[in-house]
């Protein structure tokens, strides 16, 4: 595992497109976030699963060229020793937030600071565009991701129990926000 000082963040270029799917590794589902809205404030509790499981998202099939030299969207890749180890894909959203469409790190580099560096790059990009913060969504069964976002200053701002109705394993979609000062 490398330290943050050995990680380079690069903007997407045509020749780097082939590296995008390399960061889509399996991740562990070991608990659930249960949100609660009381007096207009979101709180949550964590429930750990009796048995953990592994999952991964399907590979995205997007026109990656739209993320190259765009004012309204970007994709940054993290490298160490010429190996792609992470990515963050962001867009300028209608509500003046930088919406994080995806953030991923290779399994063996999680905990190395790559996610933090990618979030910092996204925040820098968003502030250059005078956006008010960053937002994203997670599924309630991805406790590891939720903990990561909280650690980096995100607050739970909402929940949706219908968005993932097609998926019997996901009860709630959670919406996380980080407001800039």
From TrEMBL:
InterPro entries in alphabetical order? Acyl_CoA_acyltransferase, GNAT_dom, Streptothricin_AcTrfase, YpeA/RimI_acetyltransf
Segments crossing the lipid bilayer:
none
A Pfam match: Acetyltransf_1
UniProt domain N-acetyltransferase: residue ranges: 35-181
The source's domain of life comes to Bacteria
Q: Does this UniProt record's set of keywords contain Transferase?
A: yes
Which PANTHER family does this chain map to? ACETYLTRANSFERASE, N-ACETYLTRANSFERASE YODP
**What name goes with this protein?**
GNAT family N-acetyltransferase
Originating organism: Rossellomorea vietnamensis
Its ancestry begins with: Bacteria, Bacillati, Bacillota, Bacilli, Bacillales
């Amino acid at each position: 595992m490398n330290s943050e000082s050995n990680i380079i963040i690069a903007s997407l270029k045509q020749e780097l497109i082939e590296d995008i799917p390399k960061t889509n590794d399996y991740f562990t589902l070991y608990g659930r976030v249960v949100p609660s809205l009381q007096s207009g404030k979101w709180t949550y509790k964590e429930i750990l699963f009796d048995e953990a499981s592994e999952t991964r998202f399907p590979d995205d099939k997007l026109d990656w060229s739209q993320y190259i030299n765009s004012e309204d969207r970007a994709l940054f890749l993290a490298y160490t020793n010429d190996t792609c180890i992470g990515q963050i894909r962001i867009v300028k959203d209608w509500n003046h937030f930088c919406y994080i469409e995806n953030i991923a790190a290779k399994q063996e580099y999680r905990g190395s600071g790559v996610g933090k560096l990618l979030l910092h790059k996204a925040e820098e990009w968003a502030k250059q565009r005078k956006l008010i913060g960053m937002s994203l969504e997670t599924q309630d069964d991805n406790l590891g991701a939720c903990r990561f976002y909280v650690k980096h200053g995100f607050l739970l701002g909402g929940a949706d129990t219908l968005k993932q109705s097609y998926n019997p394993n996901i009860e709630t979609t959670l919406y996380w926000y980080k407001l800039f000062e």
